[in-house]
Design goal:
The chain is an alpha/beta fold and 514 residues long. It contains 19 helices and 21 strands. It is globular, with a radius of gyration of 24 Å. The strands form 5 sheets. Strands 6-9-10-3-11-12 form a 6-stranded mixed β-sheet, with helices on both faces. The N terminus and C terminus are likely disordered.
């Protein structure tokens, strides 16, 4: 490794050294990877999906063993037998996929491996005090330690997972996509804690697709591409364009600014939709050829609004009009919505959008069985293969074949499989909930281009996202929700991040009075 040696700054040996690490499954996923982590630094690890970031972090955390290479930790050979062994040595990892037991309480989840007890009985009062002391600095002081984690939203579950990682004593903390489901204020509070750990001399390996965060929080950045180490640089020396080029090996052009000149007639009109307990009266419209963004803080009702429009959640009131109709659409279930040309890509594609053990082919045609069935309702394998293959090529899906299980694909390619299913149906109105969550920068721009292409074909798109720069780049208009109501709508050219955030906070003070 020619750059970024730990001794360069401190004169001391690195806290962790990885030399020539390799790992193979069906093929090599890591090859000759070197990495040094210093005490008292936040070291970012970036790369496209499939670059080897998760494999490398899992090796460091004792979850898998390398096939080649060696590790040293605190100057001594390091070869953890399992995760518990790694944690005993001071290496802890918070993984991207939530690892919580839904039936346990928040407090039990935080201290699962070290519950306070007396005489064999859990000391719940002591447990609650410890939990509150841990949660408060993360902005979770209002969270009931006795509440089951399964009743929390995904963002708060993620914060509990992070808090559990911060709870244990460690010298190296590995965070894999820690902010994927967090709001900006939650991210700010997390960064305060990470800087505190850095000041205490801890090392933090920070894995993220959000490059703006990487530039904001890290001291150094290491880049992986196709399982190999590419570069390690000081963050202050890297601009965003250079970092992206190191990650993908090519220049990635931004999506062209949309002019909105292709807007057609109103394709979706939502009037005073209400759905307990979050959506309290939301109205908006979107035209063919237009991309409408839905912005708002966590809990503002973005996801719930889309689900209510789609019939996935029951509506208490309000109307949905489709394709310029003057009579409200009857949508009591997702099936009703699909039959009327409405599609929804959910924020949780793995649990709500895909059958992970099934193949690309099977997932893609699930919503289009009428096109692949022959006489007697029997599915024609040849029709399936032709249809799925056609769309896989059109979307440049990266897979070994359309028979590959979806669970083996990267996040960006999994999202493409969900998109394939709806594109086959040629739906006129498509709702996207966090379409790029957990997707690397290269795949993210491919998704942007797909969305822009759909709008150019006259489709009406609604995109809910917690990533404001994403919405500001992609959308023609942005509707801001606050406390379950529409707070403001901005045309391109009228918005700024400050104005959008002000609208997002506008309903918070009075939300409890509604």
């Amino acid at each position: 490794m020619s750059e970024g040696a730990a001794a360069e700054r401190s004169g001391a040996a690195p806290l962790l050294e990885a030399r020539s690490l390799g790992k193979s499954y069906a093929g090599p996923v890591l090859a000759e990877v070197d990495l040094d982590l210093e005490r008292g630094e936040i070291h970012a690890l970036v790369g496209e999906n499939g670059a080897g970031k998760s494999t490398l972090s899992r090796i460091l955390a004792g979850l898998i063993r390398p096939d080649a290479g060696a590790l040293r930790f605190r100057g001594e050979p390091y070869a953890p037998r399992d995760r518990r062994d790694a944690e005993a040595r001071g290496v802890r990892m918070v993984m991207q996929e939530l690892n919580l037991i839904r039936t346990l309480t928040v407090a039990e989840s935080l201290f699962l491996d070290r519950l306070p007890h007396r005489g064999g009985w859990i000391a719940y009062r002591a447990l609650e005090r410890a939990a509150r002391a841990l949660l408060a600095p993360l902005g979770l002081g209002d969270l009931d330690p006795g509440q089951a984690v399964g009743t929390l939203g995904i963002g708060r579950q993620q914060m509990v997972e992070i808090a559990a990682g911060l709870a244990g004593h460690c010298e190296l903390l590995i965070l894999d996509e820690p902010t994927a489901a967090l709001t900006d204020p939650e991210i700010d509070r997390l960064f305060v804690q990470l800087r505190r750990l850095r000041a205490e001399g801890k090392a933090i390996l920070y894995i993220s697709h959000r490059l703006e965060e990487v530039q904001r929080i890290s001291d150094r950045v290491s880049v992986l591409r196709d399982g190999r180490w590419v570069a390690t640089r000081r963050t202050a020396e890297l601009d965003l364009e250079t970092l992206v080029r190191l990650m993908v090996g090519r220049d990635v052009s931004a999506v062209a600014r949309r002019s909105g000149e292709t807007r057609g007639p109103v394709a979706l009109r939502v009037v005073n939709v209400r759905s307990a307990p979050v959506v309290r009266g939301v109205s908006f419209e979107v035209r063919g050829g237009e991309i409408l963004g839905l912005a708002g803080l966590m809990g503002s009702g973005r996801t719930e609004t889309l689900r209510a429009v789609f019939g996935a959640d029951a509506r208490e009131g309000g109307e949905v009009y489709l394709h310029g109709a003057t009579v409200p659409a009857s949508i009591r279930s997702p099936g009703d919505a699909v039959r009327q040309g409405l599609a929804l890509l959910t924020e949780n594609r793995k649990e709500q959008g895909l059958f992970l053990p099934l193949s690309v082919r099977e997932n893609a045609v699930l919503g289009n069985l009428g096109r692949v069935c022959g006489r007697g309702g029997w599915i024609g394998r040849g029709r399936e293969e032709a249809l799925a293959g056609e769309w896989a090529r059109a979307l440049t899906l990266r897979c070994r074949s359309i028979e590959q299980p979806v669970c083996e694909l990267s996040g960006g390619n999994q999202q493409k499989v969900v998109l394939m299913r709806w594109l086959m149906r040629d739906c006129g109105v498509v709702l996207f909930d966090e379409p790029t969550r957990g997707i690397d920068i290269g795949a993210r721009y491919e998704i942007y281009e797909l969305l822009a292409g759909l709008a150019a074909r006259g489709k009406a798109l609604v995109v809910a996202s917690s990533d404001l720069p994403e919405l500001m780049m992609l959308c023609d208009r942005i509707a801001v929700l606050s406390a379950g109501r529409l707070a403001a709508t901005f045309e391109r050219g009228d918005w700024s991040q400050e104005r959008i955030l002000a609208a997002a906070f506008s309903g918070c003070r009075g939300a409890g009075d509604a």
